[in-house]
Amino acid sequence: MSPKKRFGIIFILGALATISPFSIDMYLPGFPAIARDLNTSIDQIQLSLTSYLIGIALGQLLYGPLLDRFGRKNPLYVGLVVYVLATIACAFTQTANTLIAMRFIQAIGGCAGMVAALALVRDLFPVNEIAKVLSLQTLVISVSPMIAPTVGGYVTAAFGWQFIFIVLAGIVAVVLIGIYFALPAGHPPDKTISLLPQPVLQNFYTVLKNPQFLTYMLAGGIGAAAPFAYISGSPDVFMNIYQVSEQEYGWIFALLAAAMIGSTQLNTPLLKWFSSEQLLTFALTLQTLVGAILVVGAWANWYDKYALIFLIFIFLAGQGLNVPNSSALSLTPFARQAGSASALLGCMRMGAGALASAAVSVLHNQTVLPMVSVMFFCAVLGFVILQIGKKQIKTNAPSPGEVNAHISETETPLSVKE
Questions:
Q1: Torsion of the alpha carbons at 285, 291, 296 and 300, rounded to the nearest 10
Q2: Cα dist from 325 to 46, 59, 126, 315, 321, whole Å
Q3: What's the predicted TM-score (pTM) here?
Q4: How many whole angstroms separate alpha carbon 98 and alpha carbon 103?
């Protein structure tokens, strides 16, 4: 594969992987303006984020079998066209309920990009390059929360919140063109793959019966829902309670996203001295303690915006250690069923995130307390599940080298041919 072709493929796959992060984060600075224009409350607008997360959770279970049965590109085309149409509809919506519904459809369509991007990396690159390519994708995904709200803040201030959705639709339309002309087809369709509910559900059930998978999926997934409570509640907290502008909110969001990016980058060197289980335990312990401080301080009204930003920064730093380690520990027991396990893992995280987002909306009382309370609850529940579940796991957590070897042995990518 020529360097130019390789760069083009990685660029398109990176763009696919960032569709949902941009769709989640870019419109956050517009929450107050959307609520005003649609004559509703901000907690109703928060439900449009919840509906998007539900769509992502369900979509991951949907696209796995479809991408295997019909090949990579055809389901991808359909999903992204649905995304573009639903996104345009979001820009012209006149009611909060319509926005909530369109965001759900938007997520179902955009989710195709998340699932297909991962599948195509496995299809198109040799085994010894997969980790490197996925690292580049992860870096792009991690950086997007720093960029998207900042861009969204300036777009909202200059042109109005509707233009955010026009920009998103335009970006994905360009990506569609790139997929058609520059992205290889990947693995061919497999007509032996069954789409009937019974075999698909049986496969999922087999995965869920594994105690190691269930423990780390639940502990990591519920813990990983805490940032979604922050994402849902932060526009109201910072722009309405602390009265920052759309542009300032974008910069605050970028700063707090840096906490997750930094700890994610630290995870690899830390694994030389600590196991994934130790790092996950530390992350959930840290988030539980900081979450308790956040709740007590918010209840007592101790914090100005700077103190709140500082504590949330520390809380979110734990997230960069949670996700990669809980994922590795969850997926290690599987060879043939790694795809089903990955789909369930993603569904669990987004489903828990949707519940956390909805809880912030339901508990909304024009204070900081609902946001930080849900963040704390997610952390402490994840910690408790981890401690109880570890007693049910008889095997020790594998080392990072064993995890990588296990993945390498069970995947056989198709190299791109000139």
A1: 160
A2: 30, 24, 24, 17, 6
A3: 0.74
A4: 8
Superfamily of domain 3-186+194-410: MFS general substrate transporter like domains (1.20.1250.20)
Closest by Cα among 382, 352, 386 to 223 = 382
Residue 142 is predicted with a pLDDT of 65
Report d(CA 240, CA 367) in Å as an integer.
10
The CA distance from 174 to 400, in Å, is 38
Cα distances (Å, whole numbers) of residue 187 to 36, 135, 178, 192, 217: 48, 22, 18, 14, 28
Query: Nearest to residue 106, comparing CAs of 182, 39, 185, 27?
Result: 27
Encode pLDDT of 234-287 as tens digits.
888 888 888 888 788 888 888 888 887 777 777 778 878 888 788 888 989 999
Query: CA 172 → CA 62, 132, 197, 266, 389, distances in Å?
Result: 20, 25, 31, 32, 41
> How many CB atoms lie under 10 A from the CB of residue 205?
10
* Radius of gyration for the alpha carbons in the chain, expressed in angstroms and rounded: 21
CA atoms within 13 A on the CB side of 245: 9
pLDDT in tens, 302-341: 888 899 999 999 998 888 788 777 877 776 776 555 556 7
Q: What is the mean pLDDT of residues 52-65?
A: 83
What residue ranges do the domains of the chain occupy? 3-186+194-410
Residue 93 burial (CB count, 10 A): 20
List CB contacts of 83: < 8 A, sequence separation 6 or more.
19, 106, 109, 110, 112, 113, 169, 172
